[in-house]
Amino acid sequence: VKTGGLGNDISDLPVAGAAPEWMSEKAISIGHYFVASGVYTVFGVTLPVSGAPEFQEYIFKEFEKLYGGMWDLEPDPVKMAQKMIAHIDKKRKELGIDKARERILFDMAARRELEAA
Does residue 104 lie in a domain region? Predict the structure, then answer.
């Protein structure tokens, strides 16, 4: 991530994961992998592992502080998409890539100047 110039961690990237519906328990495992990797992940139905209020607080809020990613629940697909877009827009703004800019094609000499700086 750092080499590509888009932050220092996966959680800095403007990405989001989603599971609008799940067919098996593997969806939870895959989603948890995304969250632990630092990706904001929205689930379309309730998580069968979200029982105790303390645990819900942990997976929906504390995870973001620890890993950069977090779970979110939203059964409505339009609202789910809106949440994901809002998250992506927030991350783009944090990286400073939320505004259109002139694109510049660098040759090797220009790249070396960048690396030296």
Answer: yes
